[in-house]
Design a protein that fits this description.
- The complex is a heterodimer.
- By secondary structure, chain A is α/β, with parallel strands linked by helices.
- Chain A contains ten helices and eight strands.
- Chain A has a domain of 96 residues: Dihydropteroate synthase-like (TIM Barrel).
- An eight-stranded parallel β-sheet of chain A has the order 7-6-5-4-3-2-1-8.
- In chain A, strand 2, helix 3 and strand 3 form a beta-alpha-beta unit.
- Chain B is of the alpha/beta class.
- The two termini of chain B are 29 Å apart.
- In chain B, the strands form two sheets. In chain B, strands 8-7-6-5-4-3-10-9 form an eight-stranded parallel β-sheet. Chain B has a two-stranded antiparallel sheet with strand order 1-2.
- The radius of gyration of chain B is 19 Å and the shape is globular.
- Classes of the chains: A alpha/beta, B alpha/beta.
Chain lengths: 261, 313
């Protein structure tokens, strides 16, 4: 019933512009990318500061405050392998527009991030994997169960665990795609929220192809019950597809101008 | 084990919209719970009841209404009496006679009547038009100008005239715009989008989702209001969070239950009582679905519905 949650992926330290801005704590390039994504319709913004082992705490606090002060407390997804940095980000986070998201936990080394999310009343992305790509859906669902039980033991609302089936790149793992969709269906049938790095599927494809294949995938995944994704919101075709799927699923009420709002 | 109540309170809220000025203003909307669910959370503003009078005076009105207004000679006197009706929160002046087929009252005359009514009352005013969208656009513009600063609601901007009504009523004179969609849920949202794109602030828009007397397609009205409230509260749809005003009197007093004489239908009982009952059941049902205000005309209906609202808050 709730509409699809889009999480903008473009504040990412892999981008040279963003990496440099983060190193120098230069607000301009980060604010520019944030604005582009919000204007394009992103609900959450992902803030990926990389491993940031030494500077993470300071950097995440700075980024959270910078973005929320400039964009009316935009809800954020705190994305780093440095758990201390995530905690530091949450300590200055304003929840007016939505809980913070911890990105991410898995059933392996990073399972402790579920504890972190539970202790801080945050949403947590839970990757259905332990080390590397899961062999099949039996494995995915076993990890899901493990993380779900851990979160619930710690008093988390199951709706705050957003399970990620791991979208796989089509060029190389084409035969695995339907399996990922089936996993989303299984998670959805359990009433769970789901998410994932959708753009991963089109890695390595020509630039003009990516919006087409990403849009097709999001539509098929939404049919299976996908409730959110980390995407490039500046991809107009993708955003139009998501809005249209939300209409077909009765997640939002139709009006002739639905693409404009 | 004891029953533990789990209140169903939404994170979203219906917009609040003020009508009138200073000490006499009223506020519509603000709810964060399902309609009338005051047991889940306090409802910021109770639904309001409006009293409708028309530019035709007491012509053709049932006896109870004529008796109530007694020897009122002018529309101003009648308006004053309407405002004093027990349970009245606002007065609605409907320009039935502005309709080209119903006397085609001139714009100047309409403005004069509106000013007379506005000056006579000390509670908020709602102006309702006629059946012609084109004529409505003309009279609304001039009345909005004449009543500038009074914070009046105009019913309504429709698909055919929203540009002119939105530009004059909403933008030029900062009055409140009613967006009317005649039981078309997608148009309801679309009109709000269009008015917003025109520049009318969300806080200045009220929805008239249309109405029908109970038994005359009311189930469509009910499901429309219900779905709109779900979108507003459960789906946080900003384009449907405007409060809802539902005119009742203009729908219920024109159906056969209210019109058939006792000579023709002796088994149906007192004609006037039938009209009152149609008005009451329709208004009560609309409030249960989510209307933030209803517009009635008979003193007995106004008393009953305002007592019902008071008892439920």
């Amino acid at each position: 019933m709730a509409s699809f949650v889009t999480i903008g992926e473009r504040i990412h330290c892999i981008s040279p512009v963003i990496r440099e801005a983060m190193e120098k704590m230069n607000p301009e390039p980060i604010l520019k990318r944030a604005k582009e994504q919000i204007d394009a319709g992103a609900t959450y913004l992902d803030v990926n500061i990389g491993p940031a082992e030494s500077t993470g705490v300071e950097l995440m606090k700075w980024a959270v405050q910078l973005l929320q002060e400039n964009f009316d407390n935009v809800p954020l997804c705190l994305d780093t392998a440095n758990a201390k940095a995530i905690e530091a980000g949450i300590s200055v986070y304003n929840r007016a527009k939505g809980k913070p998201i911890v990105n991410s936990a898995d059933a392996g080394d990073r399972i402790g991030n579920i504890d972190l999310a539970a202790a801080n009343d945050a949403i947590c992305f839970a990757l259905c994997s332990k080390d590397g790509v899961p062999a099949d859906n039996d494995e995915r669902m076993a990890y899901c169960q493990e993380m779900l039980e851990r979160g619930m033991m710690l008093g988390m609302d199951p709706a705050d665990l957003w399970f990620d089936p791991l979208f796989l790149v089509i060029k190389g793992m084409q035969e695995k795609q339907m399996e990922v969709l089936e996993c989303i269906k299984m998670l959805s049938d359990m009433g769970l929220n789901t998410t994932g790095g959708l753009s991963n599927i089109s890695n390595g494809m020509p630039k003009h192809i990516r919006p087409i294949i990403d849009s097709a995938m999001v539509a098929m995944a939404m049919q299976c019950g996908l409730t959110s994704a980390i995407v490039n919101p500046c991809d107009l075709r993708l955003m139009e597809t998501i809005k249209s799927c939300d209409i077909i699923k009765n997640n939002t009420l139709y009006a002739d101008s639905y693409l404009e709002i | 084990m004891a029953f533990v109540q789990k209140p169903q309170v939404y994170k979203s809220a219906i917009n609040t919209v003020e009508l009138g000025v200073s000490d006499n203003k009223i506020t519509l909307g603000g709810a964060t719970v399902s309609p009338l669910y005051s047991f889940d959370a306090p409802i910021a503003n109770a639904p309001k009841v409006g009293v409708e009078i028309t530019d035709l005076g007491l012509e053709g009105e049932p006896k109870g209404i004529v008796d109530y207004y007694g020897d009122c000679k002018t529309i101003g006197e009648q308006a004053k009496k309407a405002a004093a009706m027990p349970g009245a929160d606002f007065v609605c002046l409907r320009f039935v006679g502005a309709e080209p087929g119903e006397g085609d009252r001139s714009v100047e005359e309409c403005v004069k009547i509106a000013k007379e009514v506005s000056e006579a009352i000390d509670i908020p005013l709602v102006i309702a038009g006629c059946k012609s969208s084109q004529k409505d656009a003309q009279i609304f513009e001039k009345i909005a100008e004449a009543l500038s600063g009074k914070n009046v609601l105009f019913l309504s901007a429709k698909e055919e005239n929203y540009k002119t009504v939105g530009a004059s009523v909403g933008l030029a004179y900062s009055q409140k715009v009613g967006a009317e969609s005649s039981v078309d849920i997608n148009l309801a949202k679309q009109l709000n989008v269009l008015l917003t794109q025109l520049g009318v602030a969300k806080e200045n828009i009220i929805m008239n989702l249309g109405s029908a007397a109970a038994g005359y397609g009311f189930e469509y009205v009910a499901s429309t209001i219900d779905r709109v409230k779900q979108a507003a509260l459960a789906q946080n749809d900003a384009m449907l969070q405007m409060p809802v005003v539902t005119p009742i009197a203009s729908e219920t007093w024109v159906v056969k239950e209210a019109l058939a004489s006792e000579e023709d239908m002796p088994e149906w009982g007192c004609q006037e009582q039938r009209g009152i009952e149609m008005e009451i059941v329709t208004a009560a049902a609309c409030l249960a679905c989510g209307s933030d205000a209803v517009i009635l005309k008979h003193p007995a209906s106004v008393a009953t519905i305002s007592a019902m609202v008071a008892a439920l808050m």
